[in-house]
Amino acid sequence: MLPATASRVENATSEDLNRHFASEIEESLRHHAEHPEHIDHRLDELDHEWDIERTLEANAATLALTGTLLGAFLDRRFLVLPAVVTGFLLQHALQGWCPPVPVFRRLGIRTSAEIDRERYALKALRGDFRRLNAPPMDTDAPPRLRARAALDATEA
Fold this sequence. Notes:
With 156 residues, the chain is mostly helical. The protein has helices spanning 8-11, 15-34, 39-48, 52-73, 80-95, 100-106, 112-126, 143-154. It is built from eight helices and no strands. Helix 3 runs antiparallel to helix 7 and helix 4 (52-73) packs antiparallel against helix 5.
């Protein structure tokens, strides 16, 4: 059975490193609870943070293109590099792990789920989701209005 897409990298990461990322998020939230004026800046930083998937894609594309060009213009034996890289990408897609993942994780590259945890906790801290308690979220309200209120709350 293949792991769930959203948790496959975290499942393949050591518990110590997962705890480290979780404690960084908690520390960020404590800091921003004391300094709410910094939340907007941090949210902007999170919007520009590269997650593990983007980092792996850029790394793999660079290595595969380099191997292809070297293979085409210098020596065909360089074509083994793109073959190995694409094999690692397939392994990552299926298992959430490949040899570069532990290296990037130790360098502090987080998953999109970890980044989103911090993002939405900061938005909740800022008060963005208070609108969900407004009348449209009343369980007696039509589903269309409840859905619109939930969507509006995520766009804050």
